[in-house]
Write a structure and sequence with these properties.
single chain; alpha+beta; D-Maltodextrin-Binding Protein, domain 2; six-stranded mixed beta sheet; globular
Length: 584
Amino acid sequence: MSTISALRRAVVITAASALAVSAVMVSGATSAAAAVTPKTGGILTFLEHEPRLDHLDPSRIYTGRDLAFMNSFHTRTLVAYNPVPGAAGALLVPDLATNTGVPSNEAKTWKFTLRPGTTFEDGVKITCEHVQYGTSRVFATDVIEGGPGYLLSWLDIPKDADGNSVFKGPYKADAAGLAAFKKAVSCSKDNRTITFQLNKSIADFNYLATYGTISPIQAKKDNGDKYDVWPQATGPYKIVENSKTQLKLVRNSKWNKASDPVRTPYPDEVVIMYGFDEEVVDQIMLEDTIATAVNFREPLSTNNDKFFSDDKFKNRRMNNADPYARYFAFNVKKMPCLEVRAAMYHSRDAKALLDYAGGPTYAGSYATGVISPLLAADYAPTKVVGPGSADFMPSGNIPKALALMETAKTKCPADYKKATVDGIVIDYRQSVALNDTIPIDTAAYARAGIKIKANIISSGYYSTVMNPAKQNDLSGSGWGADWANASTVIPELFATFGGFNLSQNSADPAYQAFEDQVNIAMKTTNRAAQAKLWKALDVQAMKNFWVLPTIFGKAQFVWGSQVAGVFFWVPQGNPAFGKMWINN
């Protein structure tokens, strides 16, 4: 036990120290109701630009904002992040479970015991078998797409000839596969304790239990892909409308506060209104015409000064360093030529785009890789891209880009033709800002003779680009660590078993050696030694130009004058939505 205690303590200390940096950087943010007793009642409204959220199915939600929203109001997990300001918000607290998990067997075995009094919205008592079934769904990779995939490689389940789990999920009749799964994820006789058997020591496994990928679902209510439209509630609110115009949640009468130490439901209703023009949302916030509303996205960069230079908004705004590294993922299957990929990085006008987005004050800083500086133990500038790199020029290193394209002309002529004649297709998420930023990109790449075409995705962005059949040559994205270890960054973004590998890099000549090093890092229990490996792998990924890194981000949030209790929730990189209340 002493070895495991040391491992777990190292994880917690790393999390606290790394996220304390974020707390310091967030210290300028203000709370709308620092010394006012919260009230219940009213309707809390979120104004959203897109026509829907990417996912509602707890097994499939994987963006910080949507996790923060759904886990605050609708979905309970075994453990949760403490919904309080500052570094303490990164600490784990029991949720459905009575504790934050009990490890044994060198952290290869983890047990969680369910607390009494927890139910689904239909009043059915939550049992271990419901959590076991919910966990099983991640293995149905042909149906359940989009969520974290750690369990596929972590659970002690035999592999088939292709190296995949012999268990293919609950939708396929396979007694042997199901038996193998239930051996790895088992329930006690009283149906209250769930035990996970892992194939390696994972001292921070309980952090995964903050995700809906390990959460209760009734098998009889599971309709596969369609569960994404109307999942059952286990939290204080349930869905009563999911339409083209709004997502409406009302109080869940079957939820029991005595069984939930994490959540206090303040509003009577919580509504996300879809399809708002971004400029319209900003004007609503500026004029305070819907005082009980929150902008569910950031204000337009062109309006930031209006919010942050006027003291009348001082209790209705926040500007924080967030945990995300932004980048464009190269689809290596469609862009196999390293020289063309590198040329695109060096010809991009990073300064013009950063300035447009608000400069260092609002947008952030030039990225040096995909591991955020807030992940302090694992971060170091790669010196391949960004500041510290000999070739980095904020406005673009055109001589370097032209030299790379000249090499590509003879080394990979088909890719050269695609870049200079046919055009590189870039996936962008719909935004008013694209009217300005796409011309900046077009002009910058043209300096190296590269043509681009924009594919603007108006809804379901990540579900689109994560589909290999639909993803184009580059896809805009961003990633923050799932918890304070780059084991939730490098493997997730670049390994074939990762849950967010948009680079499709498995056929790249450099890939196998890279994966070998990833596997070594995953097995390294000495945290300092592991950190060195993550730093080296970040360097290697940048040398391979599997992504085009852009910025380490900042995020702004604004809300109406009658919304109170707002603070930045460090681990999710968003406000703690569940702590908001209406003050009128």
